[in-house]
Each structure stands twice: as C-alpha cells, then as structure tokens.
Please model this.
Amino acid sequence: MSKTFNIAGTSSRNGVVKARFANDMSRVKTLVKTGHTEINLVKLPNAMTKEDAVAFLVASDFAAGNEVAAAALAAFQGKRSSAPRKSRVADESVDAVAAR
Model:
C-alpha cells in the first residue's frame, strides 16, 4: 500500500527547489523553521500518492510562470520513473550484515 498525501507543492532551500508533500498545512511551519523559502503548497482534491500528486500539479499548471518549480516537478517525475532502487542491505553479503 502506498502512502498518500493531501497537500503537495514545492519549496526552495539553499537555492534548490524540490517537490514537497504533507497531510496538513502545518508543514509550512516546519519548512520555514528549517530555512525553506518560496513555499508553495496546495490542497489536493483527494489523497494521492507522490507520483499522482506531481502528475496532478503538472496537469493543473501549478508551476505556470515559475520555470524552476516546473523543472523540480519534472525532475521528480523523471527520478521516480526510473527503475526501482535496490536496498542497501540487498547489496551486502550475509557475512557483512552478520558482522555488524
């Protein structure tokens, strides 16, 4: 079962814009406390997975006029569409795990 979110958007921190997800707008307080700027979150029409939320934002012209935010959403889609990542433990031998 995939985790779902009610809020989605973008924010900038140290010049890097990324997609952000939350279940309530109190997330804005946390983003501000941690130095995020250009916070732009919107309530989604229904609970969605991260992939569905980004697709909704792109389809609804959420980032119209903001090329950086549009690029961040496109980068998120590109990153998620690649092959699933292997877990770090899957790459380790049984002996290496046992040694820990």
